[in-house]
């Protein structure tokens, strides 16, 4: 089997008595786009900085393309990096910012100028060589930062929350462009983000982190559909959480039994996790097996779909969030106080002690 492009073995980091990272083990293949996802303070940025050599790990080692880079200074590592704050030199033109790494490597001026022109065309800003950062929008500045990171043709691209300072529409467009560019160039990429939607949209694999450890690694669909533990289920996307008691082949919520698969012993107090889109609305035929009547409490308008909160005797009074298409809601003239038959999908239920 081919060796992974990047390997982290037992990486740990202490800041005095505080443990920022604990025994991190991870492999990343050539050309992969991997997202480190987690809440603030979970250790994802610290891990990225250790890979870049901007922090020194307390324990463990890092191998890139078979080379041990664990103790190498940043200048001797093969990567380009883009920060949240752009970090462009305000007194330098766009061309000089992009060419900064090429000048340090003493690349001949004509070759550097051609490389700059090619990269600016690649990031959608041709002809902007003579402008200064202050003359550009936030999205344009981040494109320049990306071009600068790619100028030296690094084997590894590191992105430290590169989109979090941008407004929603620009962030959406730029994340699509970054993913398209990464596929085109085939550069191995690691992006740090706390935005679940962003990670699900761009990553080949997601590394979910919390309190300095890796909670789960997997392709976006697997992480979303089959969370490894309650933290992942709760952090990645919206989810309903219902208190239940495990039974053989199912769970009980109040007086109601729901069939589902789990590995818990009968009588174990547990929580049932179910995505709002995994609740069937107005089920018929086989889908009606676990159906019950509910009453709509409130409707949250979210554009093309709505998040509908319902209550039912079958749920022992606990609220349940359901995703409904806006057109379906309008067609049946549903609103607060209206009755709504629903069914829980047993194959989508996740039960944790």
Walk me through the structure.
The strands form four sheets. A six-stranded mixed sheet has the order 6-7-8-3-9-10, with helices on both faces. A five-stranded antiparallel sheet has the order 13-12-11-14-20. It is 25% helix and 33% strand. Strand 11 and strand 12 form a beta hairpin. The protein is built from ten helices and 20 strands. With 353 residues, the chain is an alpha+beta fold.
Distance between the termini: 38 Å
Ranges with pLDDT <50 over ≥5 residues? Answer: none
Strand runs, count: 20
How many alpha or pi helices? 10
Overall pLDDT, averaged?
94
The biggest beta sheet is recorded as:
6 strands, mixed
Judged by helices, strands and strand pairing, the structural class is: alpha+beta
Element-by-element helix/strand order: EEEHEEEHHHHEHEHEEHHEEEEEEEEHEE
Cα Rg:
25 Å
Task: Give, in spatial order, the strands making up the sheet with the most strands.
Answer: 6-7-8-3-9-10
């Amino acid at each position: 089997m081919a060796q992974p492009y990047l390997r982290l073995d037992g990486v740990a980091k202490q800041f005095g008595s505080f443990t920022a990272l604990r025994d991190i083990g991870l492999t990343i293949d050539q050309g992969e786009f991997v997202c480190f996802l987690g809440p603030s303070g979970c250790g994802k940025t610290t891990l990225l900085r250790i890979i870049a050599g901007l922090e020194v790990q307390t324990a463990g080692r890092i191998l890139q393309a078979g080379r041990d880079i664990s103790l190498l200074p940043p200048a001797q590592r093969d990567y380009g990096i883009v920060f949240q704050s752009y970090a462009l030199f305000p007194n330098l033109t766009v061309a000089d910012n992009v060419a900064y790494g090429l000048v340090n490597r003493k690349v001949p001026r004509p070759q550097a100028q051609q490389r700059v022109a090619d990269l600016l065309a690649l990031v959608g800003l041709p002809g902007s060589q003579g402008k200064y950062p202050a003359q550009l929008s936030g999205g344009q500045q981040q494109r320049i930062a990306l071009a600068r990171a790619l100028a030296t043709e690094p084997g590894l691209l590191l992105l430290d929350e590169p989109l979090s300072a941008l407004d929603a529409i620009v962030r959406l467009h730029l994340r699509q462009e970054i993913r398209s560019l990464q596929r085109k160039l085939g550069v191995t990429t690691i992006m740090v983000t706390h935005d679940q939607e962003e990670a699900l949209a761009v990553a080949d694999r997601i590394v979910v982190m919390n309190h300095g450890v890796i909670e789960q690694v997997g392709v976006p669909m697997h992480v979303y559909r089959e969370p490894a533990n309650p933290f992942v289920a709760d952090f990645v996307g919206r989810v309903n959480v219902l208190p239940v008691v495990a039974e053989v082949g199912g769970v009980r919520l109040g007086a109601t039994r729901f069939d589902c698969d789990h590995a818990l012993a009968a009588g174990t107090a547990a929580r049932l996790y179910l995505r709002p889109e995994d609740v069937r609305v107005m089920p018929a035929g086989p889908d009606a097996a676990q159906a019950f009547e509910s009453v709509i409490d409130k409707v949250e308008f979210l554009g093309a779909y709505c998040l509908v909160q319902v209550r039912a005797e079958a749920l022992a009074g606990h609220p349940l969030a359901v995703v409904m298409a806006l057109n379906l809601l309008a067609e049946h003239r549903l609103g607060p106080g209206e009755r709504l038959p629903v069914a829980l999908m047993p194959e989508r239920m996740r039960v944790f002690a």
